[in-house]
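Quality-control log, excerpt.
Job 1 of 2 completed; input and output follow.
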Amino acid sequence: AIATSIQNDTATMLAAEDFPYSINDEPTDEWTIEQLLHWCLLQGERRTNERRDELISALREQLEEGKKVLMEAHEQAVQASAAEDGGADDEVVDGGTAGAATASATNGGEKSTGTDDDVEVVGVVPAGGRG
């Protein structure tokens, strides 16, 4: 991929050196056939690169949305597993356990029952594990 990019950049630079006009200029009767062909090439490359950038941006957005959906599904599975393994005392809200969700959001994964001495670890997610 890098070699292709370098070849494309080199071809564009060579075309630009032989092309004394701006890519935004419109062809005139003074242009040679070679200059006209260079202009067409540069126009095509610009449109192709713009479309490529749009597609890459759309794919990145889809990837981020997919990551969010995947993490939500993982979180629900962890909560369901915790509920099956003995977390039956937690109140079930929206398909997950409220205690585990609250603990994870407020205490970095620790569930507090009101005193500093009584701490139960519930579904610890390592820092950086969400991105």
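Job 2 of 2 completed; input and output follow.
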Amino acid sequence: GQDEPNPPQLPDSMVLLHPPQNDQAADHLNEILQEYSDPKLTLAEFQEQNPSSNIQFPEFTHTSAKHFSNQRTALLFAPGEYPNIDFEVGYYTSVIGLGESPDDVQFTNCSKGPHVPALDKFTDRPPNGSGLNTFWRSVENFATNPAEGMHWVVSQAAPL
């Protein structure tokens, strides 16, 4: 057989990320990571994006365009320090530190780091969010000590 490429070629569903070398690179990494977050999605937007769907859900269930997606993503973080990196871990996303131990991949000087907030994206939903519809996401093998504390508001199938 032929030799495998080293490093291997990753499919589009796997993203290998490296520690930013300066503030500009950290800002750019934060922009990239927003693609894997759960953006606010209203019922009208959901229906517009899924015109063939005749399912009628209450307004508050449509919190993400990725909620009913078949897209799966693994965000792979190479060992090192990731300062000022804050991003929401979205539906069907795994965040994986590639170090030998969790301390090999560190999110530092951040407000939230990798997180899953309560679904408080709608202000008319008392008591300002819940975790009943935040599932199918995971994180493993990294260290973080965010200023706002670790937010991991999930309901099921969301290992930490």
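Post-run check on job 2. The CA atoms of residues 46 and 62 lie 7 Å apart.
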